[in-house]
Amino acid sequence: MKKFLRKVSAVLFAGVLAISTVPGGFVKAAQDIDSYADGTAYLSINNTDWADYEATYTTAEITGDGTYTVSMEAAEAQNLAQFNALQVKNGEKVMGNKSIITVDEIKLNGEAITLQGYSYTCSADGAGIDTRVNLYNEWNKPTDDSGAIAKDTRCEQDAAGATAMLWTADQLTGVKSVEVTFTVSHFGEHEDEPVVKEKVAEPLPAEGTQSYITFSDTAWANQWWNDGKEYPTVTMNQATVTGEGEYTVSCEIKATEEAPAKGFAFMDVEIKDGEKYFPYGYMNIKSVKINGEEVALTGKTYTSSDDGITTRTNLFNEWVDTSNSSFGGRSADGSSDVTSTPVDVSAFADKDITSVEVTYELVAEGGVPFGSYVETVAEEVDTTGPWTAFLMFADGKEESWQNYNMGVGNETQVTGDGVYEVSLTAEQAGGKGKAEPQDGALVFLVDIDGMGKAMKSVGTLR
Question: Does this model's pTM top 0.90?
Fold first, then answer.
């Protein structure tokens, strides 16, 4: 069967442009988006009152790679709001979440404008349903809060350099018509979201578990680790963790003149066996005091584990490289914009450290994994078959033939090398007249369901 999969190399796809204008001339209200078919591209143009206005909209049905034009013509000139976009209804499914829309030209009031940069494609509001290209959006950018390219952003050029504002703020006033010409590429390319592995918490014992601080001064002369050893200069005041809630842990250091406790080489707060009992736990640091003095945090903290057993939040750990691909943890919002050194210890470099106190809130399900902590489950793929083959065909006639799914037409089961036949009749496809695949086809292809995934699984399709 793998030999057979290696021999299959491509699927032919043909698509042509279909244009439709909203019926009824001028249309009161924004648009009747619900009436649009999946794969319909349209303009979302908003005025400063965020109110309905009379306009005629021209949409485009996206059927494959190619160039399309959509437009809006208002009955009266509008002053546009801070958000205007080109969208494709259910585009992430119809076109694929790796498809790219590139804006070629924008006309405002019939005149082509100078674009203020190049466009990028994303999922509308990150929902993974509608596809969006921001034409003028003051509230969006191609990167996330950490500066990394947002996971749903794609672009034919460097996405980091793309813009959500293709025209200027001065061009928002007195707009009666907008026309956008754009090119679709990578139509049909889709990547499924990985299945995230779910962790199951073990029951917390009735006696709870312990929380404490681990640290060392800069000379490693005064330190404390939860390893069963005696550390005579340190008294650790542990907290018993019994579930969600606020906890305070502290320690007193009584250093000697021969070995004073100056500054910090390392400091964190930990929960023994925390990964077993709170696999999605987040330690929200409320307060850090050194020598009784409140110390402000310099960045966002995160919760992680060094051994997969003990839960920790680093307060000063210079051995962590947050830019490394292996870095990960849990933060309150899933952001990787965190630091392993949120406590600025420089002010204590030459001071005798006598006490440390940390107060935190444990939120059992409050940690959202990021980076290497997002564990996925490999999808089970059928590489032995059989796979169902069917004919997908649609034309653009008024009483058209239309079939995009299995279960319609005369299908066959593909089991290996050989000759197979699939067919479709007018009755099965809902057509009233003769099909015109040469001149009028929107879609005309053979789809073998599941075989593409099988080929990717064995490495013969990329």
Answer: no
